[in-house]
Specification:
It is built from 14 helices and 11 strands. With 332 residues, it is an alpha/beta fold. Helix 3 runs parallel beside helix 5, helix 5 runs parallel beside helix 6 and helix 12 runs antiparallel to helix 13.
Amino acid sequence: MFPAVLRLGNLVIDYPVIQAALSGYSDAPMRKIARRFGCRFALCEVMLDQFVIAVSKRKARLYFADTDEHPIGAQLMGSEAEQFVKAAQRLVNEGFDLIDLNFACPVKKVLGRKRGGYLMSDPNTALNIIEAVRSNIPAAVPLTVKLRKGFDDTPQSRDNFFRILDGAVERGVCAVTLHARTVRQRYEGTSDWAFVKEVREHLTANGYAGVALIGSGDLFTAADCLQRYTESGVNALALARGVIGNPWLFAQLRSFAETGTYCLPSLTEQRDVIAAHFRLSAEHYGERRAATTMRAFGVRYCMLHPEAETLRQEFVRCKTAADWQRVLDNWY
């Protein structure tokens, strides 16, 4: 059974399963769909600090619905403390409730610019960024950080991880999201949940029991989620790739934790959710752009369909709203 709440600074989340930041996916339409299935806290797509500073108005990535998306977190990525600070201040002024710092992204071009997961190999810069941001945003705004197990599997990388972890907590981070693969692993192999448990025990043993640890990696089914949550001792789970095209996982996990059972969505239920997601995307981006933006979601939604491979090609070919309606009519 899940505990009643997840505490992130002054934010109290009544379901400890959150929507992770997903580049290219966790936009406003996806977050709204996630909330329909019980998600209580979501992070927007990761944003480059320079982008946040440069844009003159609230564009798509900065957008969130003022009426029904709180609390909402913004995840930042960059390489310089000064830029991080300016971007974080802008996001706070825009109304985001929490700032999350991404030190985990394993994409090659990100690493080449000394951003994201590169910072797992540079503790001094990572901690300078954390200290600068924490010192220059309001104390009431929670600051969190996304880490990986290390840059690689060397002893030096392990030492760097714990130096960053302990230093982050000492500088006022209230929660750490941990994806237990190394940066070098990207998404290959399996996520090391034994390491997640080790980190939870390390935090507790060093007097940091009040710091939330959020586990991430290989969370694709309700059974796997509950097992990893229970065995690792984390305070929450961050669902990422597992909920692209499968927002039902939020509700399935709650049901499985409470009753030991959950239901798979029927084709009719799948059709209705895909149609609702498309409508939200059309409202957000305009119908023409939504027809192509949604293809990335379509190829994931279809994984629940009994004829997934054939249907995948149908979604890939969609170019208009009429194409989407045709696919739903013919296959759902």
